[in-house]
C-alpha cells in the first residue's frame, strides 16, 4: 500500500538515476519529477516532507542555474520541506550555495544508495519533529487563555472577549451550567489591564442568603459586640482587580441594593460598621438563568441588571459548537494522561462518533468527567465508545430537511477533518477526498476557519 509510505519527491532528469532511486528507496512512496514545471505541480499536490533535488535540470542539465531557481521557489512554496540537493562531484561550491539558500543537506554524485537513504531518513525524522512542534504551537493557539475552541460560535465569543477585556466595562456571561463561563471570566481577567491584580470568585448560589452579605461586604463587630472580630469581604479582596459573581441571579434583593451602592459610589462599608472604604472593582457575573425575565418578574433589580450587563456575552452549549467536542476531548486526554501517569494515545473512530452525536446536557463539565473516568479505567491504548459511558437515549436527532442535513454533515465532516489533521488543510482535503481549492471554497461557504 503506497498510501501509508511517506511521500518523497525525487527531482531527477537522468532516466537511469530515476530508476535506481525508485528501486533503492522502496520504503518511500517516490513521486518522480524531471523538470521544473512538473516539480512545482507535484510539490503543490503532495507537499512532501522531503525532496531530493538534482540541480542539473533541463533545458541546461550541465549547469545548476535552473536547479537553483527551482530550489528558491520550493523554499518559498513549502518552507517546511527538507530539501536534499544532489550535485555533480565537481560542484561543491554550488552545493554549499544551496545549503546557504536553505537546503537541508547536499549529496555529491555518484550516488551510493545506502548513504543517500540515511540522509533521507534523518531528513524525515527532523521534518516530523518540526511538524510535531508546529502542531503543538497550533494547539496552543486554539487555547485562548485557557479556552479550548475551534467552532465559529466559540471563536466569536473569544473575539468578543478580546475586545472587551482591555476596557473596564462590567460583563455578564449567560449560559448553561458547565459551558465554561468561569473559564471565560478568567480569560477576560488574564488579558485585561487588571491581570496582575486579584481575581476573586464568589458563587452566590453556594452560600446561604444570610451569609452572602457578610461574605461580600465583610463585617466589623468591634463597635457593638463582645466578639471583636472583623473580616474583609470579597469586594475588598477584589479591590483594584476583578470580582467574579457566579450565579448572580441567586443574589437576594437586599444584597443587590447594597451592591448597587458599591458600584455607583465606589465605596464599601462592612456589615456592622459605618466606615466607608474606597474600592475600585471590575465586576464579571455569570448566570444560567434569564436575568431579564427575573427583572420582569420583580426578582432582580433593573438598575443593577443594567449596571452588570454593560457587555453581554452568550455562551453556547457544547452541542452547538461544531468541532469543539473532539478538540476539547483531546486536550483533556493529554491533561489526564499527565495527571494519572497514563499514556492513552487517542479515541477510536466509534468514540469520536459517539461524542459528536451525544447532546452533552452537562456541557464541558460532563465531557471532562467522562474523559477523566475513561483515562483512569481504560485498559487499552485508545479510548473506546463504551468507556465514555454515553447514554444512547441522549443521542441527538437529525433534522428531516435534506439540505439542512447535508450542510450540517458537511460542516461537521470538514471541522472534524481539520481537527484530526491539526489544521493542515492539505491533509484535511486528503482525508475528505477533496482537492484543496474545493475544501477552501466549502470552508468559505460554511465560515469555517482552520
Ligand atoms: N473551552 C474550554 N476549554 C477547556 N476546558 C473548559 C472549557 N470550558 C469549560 N472547561 C472546563 O469545564 C469545567 C466547567 O467549566 P466552568 O466552571 O467554567 O463552567 P461554568 O459555565 O462556569 O459552570 P457553572 O455555571 O456550573 O458554574 C471546568 O473544569 C473548565 O475547566
Automatic annotation (TrEMBL):
Keywords attached to this entry: ATP-binding, Nucleotide-binding, Phosphoprotein, Transcription, Transcription regulation
Pfam families xrefs: AAA_lid_14, HTH_8, Response_reg, Sigma54_activat
Example of a GO MF term: sequence-specific DNA binding
Alphabetized InterPro entries for the sequence: AAA+_ATPase, AAA_lid_NorR, CheY-like_superfamily, Homeodomain-like_sf, HTH_Fis, P-loop_NTPase, PEP-CTERM_resp_reg, Sig_transdc_resp-reg_receiver
A GO biological process held by the record: phosphorelay signal transduction system
Residues the record lists as 4-aspartylphosphate modifications: 54
Record-linked CDD domains: AAA
Domain Sigma-54 factor interaction per the UniProt entry, residue ranges: 147-376
Limits of the Response regulatory domain: 7-124
NCBIfam families listed in its UniProt record: PEP_resp_reg
Protein's recorded name: Fis family transcriptional regulator
Lineage per the UniProt record: Bacteria, Pseudomonadati, Pseudomonadota, Gammaproteobacteria, Kangiellales
Amino acid at each position: 500500500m503506497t498510501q501509508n509510505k511517506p511521500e518523497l519527491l525525487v527531482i531527477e532528469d537522468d532516466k537511469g538515476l530515476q530508476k535506481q532511486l525508485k528501486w533503492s528507496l522502496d520504503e518511500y512512496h517516490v513521486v518522480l519529477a524531471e523538470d521544473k514545471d512538473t516539480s512545482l505541480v507535484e510539490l503543490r499536490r503532495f507537499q512532501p516532507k522531503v525532496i531530493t533535488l538534482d540541480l542539473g535540470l533541463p533545458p541546461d542539465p550541465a549547469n545548476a542555474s535552473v536547479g537553483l531557481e527551482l530550489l528558491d521557489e520550493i523554499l518559498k512554496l513549502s518552507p517546511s520541506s527538507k530539501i536534499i540537493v544532489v550535485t555533480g562531484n565537481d560542484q561543491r561550491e554550488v552545493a554549499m550555495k544551496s545549503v546557504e539558500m536553505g537546503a537541508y543537506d547536499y549529496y555529491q554524485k555518484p550516488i551510493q544508495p545506502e548513504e543517500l537513504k540515511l540522509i533521507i531518513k534523518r531528513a524525515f525524522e527532523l521534518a516530523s519533529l518540526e511538524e510535531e512542534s508546529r502542531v503543538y504551537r497550533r494547539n496552543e493557539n486554539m487555547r485562548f487563555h485557557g479556552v479550548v475552541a475551534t467552532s465559529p460560535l466559540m471563536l466569536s465569543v473569544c473575539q468578543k472577549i478580546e475586545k472587551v477585556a482591555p476596557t473596564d466595562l462590567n460583563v455578564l456571561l449567560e449560559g448553561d451550567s458547565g459551558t465554561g463561563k468561569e473559564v471565560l471570566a478568567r480569560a477576560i481577567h488574564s488579558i485585561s489591564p487588571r491581570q496582575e491584580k486579584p481575581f476573586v470568585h464568589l458563587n452566590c448560589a453556594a452560600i446561604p442568603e444570610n451569609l452572602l452579605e457578610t461574605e461580600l461586604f465583610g463585617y466589623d463587630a468591634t463597635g457593638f459586640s463582645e466578639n471583636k472580630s472583623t473580616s474583609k469581604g470579597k469586594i475588598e479582596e477584589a479591590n483594584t482587580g476583578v470580582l467574579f459573581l457566579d450565579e448572580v441571579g441567586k443574589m437576594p434583593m437586599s444584597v443587590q441594593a447594597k451592591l448597587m451602592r458599591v458600584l455607583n459610589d465606589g465605596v464599601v462599608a462592612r456589615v456592622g460598621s459605618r466606615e466607608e472604604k474606597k474600592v475600585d472593582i471590575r465586576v464579571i457575573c455569570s448566570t444560567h438563568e434569564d436575568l431579564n425575565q427575573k427583572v420582569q418578574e420583580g426578582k432582580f433589580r433593573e438598575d443593577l441588571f443594567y449596571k452588570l450587563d454593560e457587555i453581554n456575552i452568550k455562551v453556547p452549549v457544547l452541542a452547538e459548537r461544531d468541532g469543539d467536542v473532539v478538540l476539547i476531548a483531546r486536550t483533556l486526554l493529554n491533561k489526564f494522561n499527565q495527571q494519572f501517569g497514563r499514556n492513552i494515545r487517542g479515541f477510536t473512530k466509534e468514540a469520536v462518533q459517539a461524542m459528536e452525536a451525544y447532546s452533552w446536557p452537562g456541557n464541558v463539565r460532563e465531557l471532562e468527567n467522562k474523559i477523566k473516568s475513561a483515562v483512569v479505567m481504560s485498559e487499552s491504548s485508545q479510548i473506546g465508545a463504551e468507556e465514555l459511558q454515553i447514554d444512547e437515549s441522549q443521542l441527538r436527532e437529525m433534522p428531516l430537511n435534506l439540505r439542512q442535513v447535508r450542510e450540517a454533515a458537511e460542516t461537521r465532516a470538514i471541522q472534524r477533518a481539520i481537527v484530526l489533521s491539526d489544521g493542515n488543510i492539505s491533509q484535511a482535503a486528503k482525508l475528505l477526498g477533496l482537492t484543496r481549492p474545493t475544501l477552501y471554497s466549502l470552508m468559505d461557504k460554511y465560515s469555517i476557519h482552520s
